[in-house]
Amino acid sequence: MLFLLGAFVVLLLMVAGSRGFTLLFGLAINLVSIVALLILIADGFNVLITTAIIALIILIVAIYMNVENANTANIAFKTSILIVVIILLITIPLEFWASAQGMGMENQEDLEAFSLAAGVSFPQLAIAIIVVNSLGVISETSVAISSGLNEIILSKPTLTPKEVFSDGFSVGNKILSTQTNTLLFNFFSSTFPLFFLMNSLNYKFTDIINDKLLVAEILTMLICAVGVILTVPITAYFVYRGVGKKTSNSVDN
Amino acid sequence: MKKNMIRILIVVLLVLTATIITHFDSFMYGNPVMKIQQSKVVSKDKSTDEYKNTDTQVSQKLTGMLLNTSKKGQRVTLKNSYYESQLIDQKYRSGQQVILAKSGKHYSIKNVKRDTVLVFGLGLVVILLFCMKFSRAKLLISVLLNLLVYYGFIKLLIHNSNNYLLIMTVITSLLISGIALLVILGPTSDALMAYLSTVCATTLAILLSVLLLKLSGNSGVHLELTDFGLQPYFSVFLSQVIFSVLGVILDETMDISSSLIEMKKEVNDVKESALFKAGINIGRELIGPLINILLFIVIAEHLNLILLYLSNGNSIGYTFTMTLSLGFAQLLISAIGIVLTVPITSFIASKIITRRAY
Predict the structure, then answer these.
(1) pTM of the model
(2) Is B129 part of a structural domain of the chain?
């Protein structure tokens, strides 16, 4: 493992130069935040509130440390926060409906040695899992779209709101496809052992589509996709409002 | 505009219909399905375990009606007990549909019926896509084709047991990344260029990491902790790494190569070395966010297990070794791949682009 870590650091510094240190620093902060989240939850703090606070910190780090243009970063940050709130609002009822928290019968072997009366609310943790899962995708999408749109606006300052939105969608199309791929391939990565196990347990089709673990994975993927889709119009809206302000200011002066 | 509104309305209606149909599809189930009509708490028992976790064990009496099989309409009464933390047991509410298992004359609850919420969630994504001006057809084709390939992969995996897992993973990855690129970029030389870069970078990263892992004798990597203990451990682990990093590397190669193509279009006589440098500069900005994506996905996947370990009185160090060592190894290999992609894509793209006229 140390070899891998060493190779990563060396390669990173070779490719990214001094920027590499900033990247490592950002990753370290994210890791520490996540560890803090785990410890706080294990100590009995409310899962949802803790997750919301940690998510805020992670978004600040992920966006402001990776983006140099302040305007782009501000818009990306506003968008991401709004998206995380929306994701929470969608996830809470869907998870309540699906009851897909915790672990499944398939995990039983791993669980033999444990006291299962953990005192942690696993239904709430299921919501936290989806939020944490979405953080990276959401911050990347919002940064990509806001920087893309800002560039377009710089080159064509006379855009109307309609044009800003349609440009947003043309930038968004590619990002949506690539993020879908990322989500889908990660779904493949985490589910093929599950499918294999289901086969050896002789699951029927109806068992598979109602399986707790699989439904949890699919819901995660779908909700992250909703976040990515909504990022496009929301970013376009914020970018447009920013442009509107600037032009009215220059008229005032 | 009006035509668009009608289209959205049709999609919404279709999604609602599909959701409602799955709500009443219990006749398609082989197992008995029960709708819970009444749930009553029989007893509550607050307990503190040896690790000072306080949890409440609740027993509930559930009364419901069978929705299918020959006993349709029959009333059934069941007992269920659960911990309020609900790790593997479950609190049931009235109104919920549950799948039952019958042993002898007794019914027990096997699972919650979750197909309705699944269809609804899927419908939500489709509705949102139709509300906005995305090129839906492309996205849909790419997702469906990839799912089809994945389905074939699973079928083959089940048939051949998992001796050929790694080879099948490689073939599947070559297929799905090819499909993704073809659909997004079309059958162009740009797609071929991005494909070449993706394959080279992924292969190099995996080979380098395997070499490093072998050199260190897999120290600190608990391969036996792969999901569900599926064997052979190392192949399962590598397959998971390949699948999970592929999407991110595709994203990266497309970003870098398309920016370089733009650059060539603007400045026709741009030098190869200048293009290479520009590629590195663009790629540098991508590394951080892309590693972040995988970091959060990997950690989120293990949150349940981590908290179970922590609440069972294990130290943070031990918990992380047991739950995240594989995740971190996966993350590091992915990170190496993400970093290597930058020079590799810049190199391949600058070579090819300078030899081309626009």
Answers:
(1) 0.91
(2) no
**Count: domains in chain B:** 2
Residue B194 contacts A, CB cutoff 8 Å: no
- Give the C-alpha separation, B278 to A66, whole Å: 18
Q: What is the mean pLDDT of chain B?
A: 87
Task: Establish if B247 touches chain A: CB-CB under 8 angstroms.
Answer: yes
User: What confidence category does residue A252 fall into, taking pLDDT thresholds of 50, 70 and 90?
Assistant: very low
Domain membership flag for residue B184: yes
pLDDT(B110) > 70 = yes
Residue of A nearest to B336 (CA): A8
In a domain, B123, yes or no: no
Residue numbers of B between 59 and 118 with CB closer than 8 Å to A: 83-90, 96, 99, 111-118
pLDDT in tens, B122-172: 999 999 988 887 778 888 888 999 999 999 999 888 888 667 888 899 999
Quote the mean pLDDT of chain A. 86
Residue range of the domain that includes B158: 135-354
Clarify whether residues B329 and B209 are in a common domain: yes
Q: How many CB atoms lie within 10 A of CB A167?
A: 20
Confidence of residue A172 (pLDDT cuts 50, 70, 90): confident
